[in-house]
Amino acid sequence: MADTAHTGPMTSHDHDGGTRRDFLSIAATAVAGIGAACAAWPLVSSMNPARDTLSAGAPVDIDISKVQPGQQIIMLWRSRPIFIVNRTPAMQAIVKADKDAGQLRDPNSDNNQQPPYAKNVFRSVKPEYLVLVGICTHLGCIPEFVPQPGGTLGPSWEGGYFCPCHGSRYDLSGRVFQGVPAPYNLPVPPYHFVSGTMIRVGENPSNSTFDFNSIEQI
Amino acid sequence: MAAPQTQSKLVRWIDRRLPIFTFLDHELNEYPTPKNLNYWWNFGSLAGIMLTIMIVTGIFLAMEYTPNTNLAFDSVERIMRAVNYGWLIRYIHMNGASFFFIVTYIHIFRGLYYGSYKEPRELLWMLGVVILLCMMATAFMGYVLPWGQMSYWGATVITNLFSAIPLVGNDIVTWLWGGFSVDNPTLNRFYALHYLLPFVILGVVGLHLMALHTHGSNNPLGIDRKGPQDSIPFHPYYTVKDMFGLAVFLIVFAVFVFYFPNALADPQNYIRANPLQTPPEIVPEWYFLPFYAMLRSVPDILFIKAKLAGVIAMFGSIGLLFILPWLDTSPVRSARFRPIYKWVFWLLVIDVLALGMVGAHRPEGMWIVIGRVGTLYYFFHFLILFPLIGIFERPLPLPTSISAAVTKGGGKLAGASAPMEKP
């Protein structure tokens, strides 16, 4: 439409590069574009998690009294596997010793992959109990718990997690090693101890406002 | 453009109001096609026929399938055991995906060898790349529907690719899933899109054909038609040749459907999806293996983490094809007259096959090395070799016309030196 205006008699009014008809065309196109975007919004938004899916993501209580030293249990929270390991003193010693080794991508948990109250060498509230979201930060597979040192993973293996999909490796506090495809440490969910043997996953302790959605990578 | 010669009053009555008979006559009977097309030109029509087969079998499968995480796996088993000929329809659909990709890949490599992407067929080629991307999305989502272990974990791995996007990655993945993991909402939307996308492909195929019929087919000599002596009508000459090729193709297809229906499938997918148990090895369908290899091969590059770099390499490997017409600097289309490119072409074929092998193995030992070298070569081939060869290569003299080459033995000589032309 704008083109016809330029070739028609209205060209004489074309002082500053645009006619009234140009203005009307641009304004109408802009309104139609905004309208189309507004109409698309509910459609796009409908693909985000629905209310019932969100409410299914409420905190869960997990009884850890029966988890033996060296054992891992897997529970579900927001349909994601939650790893809970009761680390033996030997395992804790290995985690501590790892700290200065340059083999880890993020040995001090500097990336936002855990609540502030789990930002320590054990990446946990209590040194013995490790709580992780059991999803590889590479492409979402579930890493295997391989606590025994050595074995098929080589003589330098001190125990930790091995992802069968693309070979990513993590130590016994879920810190990722160098030279594997996974970019980040395994995430730690918000959790706190309701009692000595009961943890609530999905809820911060009362003194924290950590938002799990703010982490780098699930 | 004259209406077809017919005595039928009805045909003429319709044609005056809706000229479909004129259109068909123009695009099939009159449509001038180079007289020297070889059997590599069969694969375009084969791809079209595969698309039809997939849509028809897919519609009938949709009548029996249930897109719900609790029911999907059982509904597919019901199709296999209880529905009349359900096994046949599903095996055709399942193996059809593989054969659709086989003919499409051959079609693409034919275009690469004979320079079919060059002026004035750039848009024709780019529309083809769009079709390839749509096919990949459709095949991926279709593979999720049976809700077996590979369905679930393949979907998990591929949707997680998008989490590599900085800042908004996690939000995009949640949006794709409609939840906190691959779950019922994901299955439902994949089903809806798996039904939709084939019709999108059909639309783009229409555009692909419009672009094709604007300048007509390229040919093994890669030179333009110069007059009526260079061409023959599409019908009946190439319809009958396409039908013969189709018969041969369907025999091979039927051998797989009836005798080796699961040869191209992963047995893990006959195990119901289990969100708490990752299979020992997640492998995509064979037709994605070269791209999967690139995804896993790229190491950390400067500040880009391996994960993002791998995703960029994988999508880049196809994105690259869009600019291919401008990367190739040679004015000569057909590799028959390009003494260097003729051999380099086969290096790419070997490279892609090698990457396919890498994709099928765990990323350990020599497979990591081959994967990295293969990925590097793929990009080197298109981004460095393509422009350079065009500049430094001295092409052989082109025949004066298709007719001259075909009838006076010129084509025979060139054909003898290029093994690809022998069907």
Task: Describe the overall structure.
In chain A, 22% of the residues lie in helices and 18% in strands. By secondary structure, chain A is α+β, with helices and mostly antiparallel strands. Chain A has a single domain (17-206), classed as Rieske Iron-sulfur Protein, CATH 2.102.10. Chain A has a three-stranded antiparallel β-sheet with strand order 1-9-8, with no helix packed on it. Chain A has a three-stranded antiparallel β-sheet with strand order 2-3-4, with no helix packed on it. A three-stranded antiparallel β-sheet of chain A has the order 5-6-7, with no helix packed on it. The radius of gyration of chain A is 27 Å and the shape is elongated. Chain A starts with a helix and ends in a 17-residue tail after the last strand. Chain B has 423 residues and is mainly alpha-helical. The two termini of chain B are 35 Å apart. Mean pLDDT of chain B is 91; it is low at 410-423. Classes of the chains: A alpha+beta (218), B mainly alpha (423). The interface between A and B is medium-sized, with 31 and 38 residues.
Briefly summarize what is shown.
Chain A has 218 residues and is of the alpha+beta class. Chain A is 22% helix and 18% strand. Chain B is mainly alpha-helical and 423 residues long.
**Text of the CATH class of chain A:** Mainly Beta
Radius of gyration of chain A: 27 Å
Overall strand count of chain B = 2
Largest inter-chain interface? A-B, 31 and 38 residues
Mean pLDDT metric of chain A: 85
Number of helices of chain A: 4
Spell out the helices and strands of chain A N to C. HHHEEEHEEEEEE
What is the helical fraction of chain B, as a range of percent?
A: 55-70%
Quick one: overall form of chain A? elongated
Strand segment count of chain A: 9
The class by helix and strand makeup of chain B works out as mainly alpha
Q: N-to-C SSE series of chain B?
A: HHEHHHHHHHEHHHHHHHH
> In terms of quaternary structure, what is this?
heterodimer
Beta percentage of chain B is under 5%
Major beta sheet summary of chain B? 2 strands, antiparallel
Low-confidence stretches of chain B: 410-423
From the helix content, strand content and strand pairing of chain A, which structural class follows? alpha+beta
Give the C-alpha Rg of chain B. Answer: 24 Å
Strand order of the largest sheet of chain B: 1-2
CATH architecture of chain A: 3-layer Sandwich
